[in-house]
Amino acid sequence: MSDKYQGFVSSPIGKLLVKNLGLPNPTKLERYEAGDPLVDGTVLVGGTGRLAESLPGLLDVLGIASATTAGESQRFKGLVFDATGLKDSTELVALRDFFTPLLRSLEDCPRVVVIGTPPELVKGPERVAQRALEGFTRSLGKEIGKGGTVQLVYVAEGAEAGVSSTLGFLLSPKSAYVSGQVVRIGVHGKAEVTEVADQTQPLAGKVALVTGASRGIGESIARTLHRDGAKVVGLDVPQAASELQALMKELDGDWLTLDISGDDAPQRIAHHLTEKHGGVDVVVHNAGITRDRKLANMSPNDKGDRWAQVLGVNLTAPERITRELLDQGVINAGGSIIGVASIAGIAGNVGQTNYAASKAGVIGLVDSLADELADGITINAVAPGFIITQMTAAVPFATREVGQRLNAMAQGGLPIDVAETIAWYANPASSLVNGNVVRVCGQMMLGA
Ligand code: NAD
User: Fold this and answer.
1) What is the C-alpha to C-alpha distance for residues 201 and 230, in angstroms, rounded to an integer?
2) Statement to judge: residues 83 and 213 lie in one domain
3) Is the ipTM above a cut-off of 0.95?
4) Where is the Ketoreductase domain (predicted)?
5) 43 in helix, strand or coil?
6) Which residues line ligand 1 (CB under 6 A)?
7) Counting runs of H as helices and runs of E as strands, what totals does the chain give?
8) pLDDT for 55-79, tens place per residue?
């Protein structure tokens, strides 16, 4: 599966047409390969606030080189601005003063992170100024170009030490297709900051369940969690058994074949994880289906009942499985539950009332559990935009082209982009990252 347009624009004739016709010209995004440095370049740290002083030290632990002043004609790979010190709207000018002189001299695929205080946790003029950061970062994400990304990380007071895994993700090529996002740290639930001994194997000794693991995004999630040190338990329907087994053998993992929407699926999964692995640390609800049809044409007598199938697999199954694993104490302390929503669940889509309801429901599941979970267990979700897989290969050509170009990066994402975001949530050092829904959509123009 590939983006043919992107291949075409890098050919000599394609380059000529792009120039003369003003066609979209997607930048080839840098992606992380095992063994690469996390950030290939220097990150400039600026601003004044609760984190400014500790940031260089936090970056150093991650192996990221940083500077606090810019030398003459020095180029940067990333910029981190601590905006937690901005107490009213007149102080927002500090953003322009810091960023404007730097933006023309950034390296390719640059990374920008603005750090703020969650507006809902402060009052008056400070709340106004902190809320303003969202419009700033989302707009800069659309302006930055060259495959760059821009994010806003709201860090609650007292949660400063829990920011490092998030910086590692957002400053590295692991977040290639994530832009214009707002992440909250230390806002939901209560947990201690967890440190990991080996930054390249944060999941060493952990067990990760991945549903729908035999192909597409699920396969990439399984590979990425394995790369990070996890023992992966792949799950898929019996029809996908041979692909699933081959992959799990390659990853030295374990497998389970069943339909997650089956009545006894939650009990069978809980039993398997308890008996064979003594519990589970990471649960990724990736399996999902589409059965598109406009609502006016959707009836219970449909072939297979499109409504019931999609809601059953995409929403009711993750809800029931999560509930069973929690009730039976199968999820270990400090574990993470990760949902796979969709941009369709945020913006809506023609022909997808069933799918969008199921995916918005996955966001609801995150909201409903984030404050309730005990033992440092977290729940978060990704909302992918247009990701090039067999699911999207079935989309008609014209719709597919629009889907791929209508984002700040003018291209579709890859399964690895979703997988890296999930690996960041799963990282035990992300113990204060709870209740988030991050879109992996190249900052799609649709939806918030
Ligand atoms: P895919 O169809 O390639 O893979 C889905 C996997 O889930 C398959 O292996 C399938 O056998 C498995 N599965 C389906 N129903 C199951 C069931 N009842 N029990 C167990 N396993 C089941 O899809 P994908 O593109 O890799 O999508 C993965 C997830 O990402 C889905 O939840 C999808 O809704 C979501 N998503 C994808 C995109 C995209 O652009 N591809 C965008 C947004 C969200």
Assistant:
1) 8
2) no
3) yes
4) 206-385
5) strand
6) 211-212, 214-218, 236-237, 240, 259-261, 286-289, 313, 340, 342, 384, 386-387, 389-392
7) 16, 13
8) 999 999 999 999 999 988 899 999 9
